[in-house]
Input
Amino acid sequence: MQIRYRALLTGTAAMGAAGGLAMPVGAQTMTLSVGLPRLSVAEYHRPYVAIWIEKEGAAPRTLSVWYDYDKAKGEGTKWLRDVRQWWRASGRTMNFPADGVTGATRAPGDNKIAFTAGKGPLGTLAAGNYTLIVEAAREVGGREVVRLPFAWPPKPGASAKAQGSTELGAIALNFTK
Output
């Protein structure tokens, strides 16, 4: 199985403020669009997807996990370890379903999800440079990881874009107040 990394930054997403103090940023919203391609394969299964952020020197923070959470006896969780990089970073220490983080697998197409500063899994972020990671793994399929660097607090209109090649399509990160 091959993992590919690609990221193209646009706007001011790559430029960031330095510092380590937590900075509340009012109603700053981070909107993420995750493209899941429609694949022509004999046996198609919706991918398990994990979305998290990392900052050097800080614990990874899981923002969302899409999996078959409604299977009887928690059967869907046994396949979460196939989302390997996320599992090693923070998944294995979580209890599922995780309130505000767990979601159902998604159909092919553009899937949008928003996170507001100071609320939910995003919480309060310290100023600095972060990486948003999207990882997808599919039964009878492959795995893919896409990384998007960004700075917090973001400049107005900042964005980052990347393109997956197999299990993920276009990934777009936008910041608004």
